[in-house]
Specification:
There is one protein chain. With 155 residues, this protein is mostly beta strands. The chain has a single domain (21-145), classed as PCu(A)C copper chaperone (Immunoglobulin-like, Sandwich). It has one helix spanning 2-17; strands at residues 25-27, 30-38, 46-55, 61-67, 71-82, 85-91, 94-96, 100-104, 110-116, 125-132, 136-145. Strands 1, 2, 3, 4, 5, 6, 7, 8, 9, 10 and 11 form an eleven-stranded mixed sheet that branches. Strand 2 (30-38) and strand 3 form a beta hairpin. The chain starts with a helix and ends in a 10-residue tail after the last strand.
Amino acid sequence: MKHALIVALAAAACACTLPAAAHDYTLAALSIDRPYARATPPGADIGGAYMTIGNSGPADDTLVGASTPVAGSVQIHTMSMDGNVMRMREVASLDIPPGKEVALNPDGHHLMLVGLKKPLVEGTRIPLTLRFAHAGAIDVEVAVRSMNAGAAGMH
């Protein structure tokens, strides 16, 4: 009995000190893994959201949009380097091919949160709705990480 109590107390202590795990989501044949955003400085009116979207189904699907109550709009963006110049542009949609994963990250495709209503604060979570052409919509919770989370590139 004493041993079980010690094990239970140790497990509770560890659970309190570990960071919360990122949530993963499933919608039809799509998986949305590790959605996160970078914290923003006070006064910033844009932010970025990132994740990996996998498609285990036999047919293409397409990310056609997203929304969140913490921003005026959400845009699908792509970023590329042209020599030493970073080029970012909005795209209408993002294909998710069958049997593949598409990474949304700071150095490539990503979601741009435009018109932030308040700063994104590290350690909080924000709601985000993703809309796909075939699978429909899914609500996810985005973990806000540090300002330099993810790849080395910055917005």
